Amino acid sequence: MDGTAGRAPEGAPVDGGPVDKRLVDSGLVAVDDGGDFSYYATAGALEADYEYPGDLVCVLDRRGGAFQLAAAGSSRVKLVPAAAAVDYSWLRKAWLEAQRRHPRRYPLRRFYPDSRETLLAAVFECLYLRWTAEPWPPPSDVAAGRILADPFGHRYKAAKLPSLTQLCIRNSIKNAIFVEIPAVSDSQL
């Protein structure tokens, strides 16, 4: 990956040496060679899921630090700082394409990420919300048809996916995406 933004965390070696797990255990996003995004709460969880260094195209921490998998012997891999920074133009395109291709896997639609910071926030927060032990939004909130507010302060409205309507139960969480809507100020109420 080639880009101008993003780098290994301060103090992390750039020669493929070991990563301070405390720096990345606040969450990682991995992009595999098929363009799918996954959230991992810890570096150990990510390392346990993969066997080969080439399985992932990109691994990011919450601050945009880039990592890659390296062989660790005994058919294991370890997370090491990447040799190059993340290309955020590529990451934005990959994220938007993943949402378009797999609306059920990535149903939360934030406003267009126009900066590195908003892109990282959107990717990490959306994946975290959908892939934790209790995915957000709860189905009961969706069925009620309410405007939904996530724990990060973003508001959404459910929208049906016309192409999936005949395949899914009507008005269920399975055939909806959640589109971010502008926040309403007190003066607009």
Could you walk me through the main structural features you see in this protein, from its secondary elements to its overall organization?
The chain has a domain at 90-188. It is elongated. The protein has helices spanning 21-24, 43-49, 88-101, 116-131, 139-143, and strands at residues 28-32, 37-40, 56-61, 66-73, 76-81, 108-109, 148-149, 155-160, 176-181. With 189 residues, it is of the alpha+beta class.
Write out key terms for the chains shown.
single chain, 189 residues, alpha+beta, five-stranded antiparallel β-sheet, 5 helices, 9 strands, disordered N terminus
Number of strands: 9
First-residue to last-residue Cα separation: 46 Å
Give average pLDDT, whole number: 78
- Structure annotation, total helices: 5
As residue ranges, the low-confidence spans are: 1-25, 164-172
**SSE order, one letter for each helix or strand:** HEEHEEEHEHHEEE
> Biggest sheet, open or closed, and with what strands and sense?
5 strands, antiparallel
Helix share bin: 10-25%
Strand order of the largest sheet: 2-1-3-4-5
Beta-strand percentage?
A: 15-25%
Taking all Cα atoms into account, the compactness measure Rg is 18 Å
Question: Could you say which overall geometry the principal axes of the C-alpha atoms support?
Answer: elongated
Protein structure class:
alpha+beta
Task: State the assembly state of the protein chains.
Answer: single chain
